[in-house]
Amino acid sequence: MPKSKTIQSVKGMHDILPADQAYWQQVQKKASQLLTDYGFDRIDTPLVESTPLFLRSIGDETDIVEKELYAFKTKGGDELALRPEITAGMVRAYIEHGMQVMPQPVKLWSYGPVFRHDQPQAGRYRQFYQLDVESFGDESAVSDAESIQLALLWLESLGFKNLTIRINSIGDANCRPQYLKALRDYLKPQTKKLCVSCRNRMKKNVLRVLDCKVPTCHEVVLNAPQLVGYLDDACKAHFKQLIEFLDEIRAPYLLDPYLVRGLDYYTRTVFEILVEEEKPREAKAAEAVVEAENLKEGEEPEKPLRIEPAEIENLTGLALVGGGRYDGLISLLGGQKTPAVGWAAGIERIVMLLKARDINVPPARPQPKVFLAQIGELAKRKSLVLFEQLRKAGIVTSSSLGKDSIKAQLRMANRVRAKYTLIVGQKEALDHSVILREMDTGVQEFVGVDDIVEAILWKRSGRD
Length: 464
Ligand code: AMP
Description:
It is built from 17 helices and 16 strands. By secondary structure, the chain is of the alpha+beta class. The strands form three sheets. The chain has an eight-stranded mixed beta sheet with strand order 1-5-6-11-10-9-7-8. Helix 14 (about 375-390) links the parallel strand 12 (about 370-375) and strand 13 (about 395-400). The radius of gyration is 29 Å and the shape is elongated. Helix 5 runs parallel beside helix 9 (about 235-250) and helix 9 (about 235-250) runs antiparallel to helix 10. Bound molecules: adenosine monophosphate. Adenosine monophosphate (AMP) binds next to strand 6, strand 10, strand 11 and helix 13.
């Protein structure tokens, strides 16, 4: 590469600039507060794991592993990969650190970057951040409901309205094979109508045909048998209970028979959360109750419950959260059989939507109250000490110690909208005083350097 050519960020990877930090901080702060209140502990796992961890957990025939994994061989010959999601690493840590012997459920959350060699486009990056929330050791449907409730509460605390949960049950190892057979039998005579990827999926991962976005495939899928009708009694009961819990919290859910998610490890519950424009939450909740009633009445496998395709098509927009139950994953990775449920949220998409919806967030850095201006070497030295005194007293201060011109510094004070400017010149530095200037009025007074913190606090409390 010629020396003069500037180096750009890697395709699909982006900087989080200072102007955006307020959004990122708010998203993290709200998550951390909520999850702490609900008894979740934070865990951080490495960005790099051994490649087989992802092959075994996510599945070597999923898009995430087959097409999108950043995998490499080290000089020492180890097969490593950048994590494409957080759950697998968390499960590895749960087993490795013997968390099975702790009182269950073990509730953990994590936050950090993940990597997928995806085709970059709006809301789709190659390095993006996820918030990951997992609960290990509880197989009851209430655990799924709590998990979903947390995602909802978090998104609501950020100011999102019109949230929709798309939810489905994909059964388990006991009942899913029957469904997969029925689906294959249905698709086989129509193979020609399917896209090339779906023809491949028919052999390797037929469930994924259900959520293919290619219109011709979608058309075929609309009349396919629905998974919910093939659930065995235990899976059906679990799904019903979950729905009853969601009714209880008036969660705005929609049963989506085409939702299967892109990872192999899910069992029973799968869900995504989206933000929609049109209907308010209450109306959605009411609809959900009607749909749930259908399910509760129960249908035989020959006549599976059907959700009208038009309803699904209404759901535009990107999923902010995706998750589900994975009762087989811990044992698959060498741990004791342990049920688990959780979700991950894409932070870039959430920040994009916060901005698009003009949702206000507190500034990343509080507005400075005071600007500290100085003239001359001695004053600069005194200012270093004074700045720290002000900071310790909780007075948000700004300065530009490299500048020498008082005019330039007062301009900066105005720009940062400081209420007061403290001016330390040669004379003040020598006689241990400071000029306190009120920016609105231009009124100035001399204050002893030892009294300055007190004077500002006094003014701030409005007693002056
Ligand atoms: P997943 O790990 O695939 O279940 O995705 C969980 C969430 O991560 C999704 O709901 C999105 O919000 C987000 N997400 C997935 N892929 C990407 C991507 N390529 N770029 C940005 N966010 C993503």
